[in-house]
Amino acid sequence: MPPRGTDGTRPVTINDIATATGVAASTVSRALNNPGRVNAATRERIEAAARELRYVPNSPARALSSGRTRAIAVLVSDVTNPFYFGVIRGTQEQLKAAGYAQLLIDTEDTGELEAEMLHKMRRSLDGAILAASRLPDRELARLAGEIPLVTINRNVPGVPSAIIDTPAGIGQAAEHLLSLGHRNIAYVSGPQRSWPNEARWHAMRAVAARHRLTFTRVGPFPSGRGSGPAAADAVLNTRATACIVFNDLLAIGILQRLRERHVRVPEDLSVVGCDDIFGADFCHPPLTTLTAPIEQAGRVAVSMLLSRLDRTAAPSPTTRQQVMLPVHLTVRGSTGPVPAPA
Amino acid sequence: MPPRGTDGTRPVTINDIATATGVAASTVSRALNNPGRVNAATRERIEAAARELRYVPNSPARALSSGRTRAIAVLVSDVTNPFYFGVIRGTQEQLKAAGYAQLLIDTEDTGELEAEMLHKMRRSLDGAILAASRLPDRELARLAGEIPLVTINRNVPGVPSAIIDTPAGIGQAAEHLLSLGHRNIAYVSGPQRSWPNEARWHAMRAVAARHRLTFTRVGPFPSGRGSGPAAADAVLNTRATACIVFNDLLAIGILQRLRERHVRVPEDLSVVGCDDIFGADFCHPPLTTLTAPIEQAGRVAVSMLLSRLDRTAAPSPTTRQQVMLPVHLTVRGSTGPVPAPA
DNA sequence: AAAGTCATGGCAATCGTTTGCCATCTTTTG
DNA sequence: CAAAAGATGGCAAACGATTGCCATGACTTT
Question: In chain B, which among 121-160 make CB contacts under 8 A with chain A?
């Protein structure tokens, strides 16, 4: 059992440092983690020895006795969706800075897998960030009691969240289309159980109520380029001259199908996406879209989570329970004046 | 210390099961991990109790005593590069199936960070997959002694690897261009310390030697769309009528710049990329590229790593040390006949 | 000068598993 | 039928840290 490690040398432990400096292991532990608790002189000796011996703390051991693992999980519903790249990038950055490890989990868009993973790993995690939970509110609230949680783009009472305010952006998008003369707009719906999808749809309705315009909803479609053809055909089947699409991935799929069907964008139909993912600027035509601060959402979510973990007895003084991130409309080539009536 | 867990209930341990079934903890452990070692009847009783009590093993504790963490790290040089999405997807899938956790690490393209991370985490990992190591061969070999390693697209003696045979594809790409009449081809070089970049360049030279054609090398450029303008300008500064670009990301950046400069693709210049990443099919014009089995590379790398870990005393019978994955040329809109000489 | 405070460091229990070793009981073998 | 072999389960020692509690000595306070 002792001779672990492929190189044969037994890894150096806290005890080796203790022996080397002539203090107790407990003192070493304190010197390293709780600097105020030990005399400056001894601490320095210990730190020197630790450096000398190239000591690296054994995280499992630490986790076992302290209960803290310094690992947090990031759950996404589909790692190949570019939207999550941004999230992952943001969390990655912030977590690394704080000395936490990032466990990436693909939930494959199923709530069961999500809940199961979270439950099983709850002892080996300090917390989790849910980038696209498919879980019902109640379940989510329950899990939040098991393990510290922060959601992105999902608002559940009692669970802190970073929310990208795409719904507000929908207003801007609609006004943009209005100013181009469009009066008949379709909303292309994403997955039914997606919280942001519902929020965007509600925003659409609100906008439509404020202005005089007709709107239709088509879908729902699974988010992904594969749904593009069906979605495009559905839109063409309405009288809409423009559409706002649940997300860019789907919008790009629609663009491709429209080209196949020789429908010109934006001459015959204007298309607006959401998120401004990788690719939205170089697809053809470049996509007018609601630019979301995706990376920032990841960073913010991590900050919220970490501040919850660190709080030493303090209930929740400065930490807000919800952070709303603004989006803005980026106009590119996929939107234009309404076509002259046939 | 005992009252951990936000919900207050102390988590179920192996001892609870032992008490419940009237056996020793060690027997429970064996029943759960080493089924053959314990009587079928007792094992079933234990399994039933475990299910009943909703037992979830505590991984840190397990890791501490066994030395195995059931976690493996995947190191990429830049999480926002779509090439790695594929890799991550592949590893994710395979690791989950094998019951391993995936730790995602962004090395920010620096060898030091890579080595440091690997060294620091070696006790909390069972192994690692390096998707784009920037480390020198020697260093890599040394680290492979510290912790089981598998590389992707990097060939170092003694370190198992999954290699995408893009160099072979370069031949196909060159022949494609030749058949279109191109005789003057530029290779747009990626990062200098990138192993695949060098391999691709060597392949280019080999092809050029076989056929009668002039070739130039421009670069190196950091891989990323940001390098597009500089790279495009550099290519235009040569007499090349076509270029093969280190990777699609850079190629897409070049496409954008060419459009800005009103250079028509493929009429004025043909462009070939490598990898066939997300976006290569819907950029404008769609990119002719060498389609790489990226996800598969991730899966293969995981299999190789896992088989090394599992091998119970067996030296290395069936496991190959290197797996070569074939690519194929996907012709899209960015390549065409050589322009008539001015 | 007695009594209280504080800073410092050691002891030992604990976290939840795994695993080497041994004891017992049951089979098989010669 | 005795001896060897195998199956099964328990004991207890790790694994490497953290942390509550206590002892000591120095420094304040009254």
Answer: 121-124, 145-148
> Distance in angstroms, CA of A39 to C1' of C7?
8
State pLDDT tens for residues B144-181: 888 999 999 998 888 999 999 999 999 999 999 999 99
Nucleotides of C under 7 A from a protein CB: 7-12, 14-20
**How far apart, in Å, are the Cα atoms of B245 and each of A317, B68, B79, B143, B269?**
53, 42, 21, 32, 13
Chain B nearest-CA distance from A248, in A, is: 12
pLDDT tens-digit readout, A296-330: 999 999 999 998 887 544 444 455 689 999 999 99
* CB A125, CB A102: distance < 8 Å: no
What is the average pLDDT across B197-224?
A: 88
**Please, which residues bridge with residue A73 across strands?**
A103, A128
Output the pLDDT for position B273.
95
Residue B319: which pLDDT band, with cuts at 50, 70 and 90? low
**CA-based torsion, B228, B230, B233, B234: positive or negative:** negative
Tell me how far apart the alpha carbons of residues B215 and B183 are, in angstroms, rounded to a whole number. Answer: 8
Contact yes or no for A11 and B56 at CB 8 A = no
Task: Decide: helix, strand or coil at residue B112.
Answer: helix
Chain B positions touching A101 (Cβ under 8 A) are 103, 121, 124
**A225-253 residue pLDDT tens:** 999 999 999 999 998 999 999 999 999 99
Contacts of B67 in chain A (CB under 8 A): 1, 4
Judged by CB atoms within 8 Å, which residues 252-291 of B form the interface with A? Answer: 252, 255-256, 278-279, 282-284
Kindly identify which residue of chain A lies nearest to residue B256, measuring between CA atoms.
A282
Tokens (6 digits) for B209: 């030697």
Helices (H), chain B: 14-21, 25-33, 40-53, 59-66, 82-97, 111-121, 137-146, 166-179, 195-210, 228-236, 248-260, 294-310
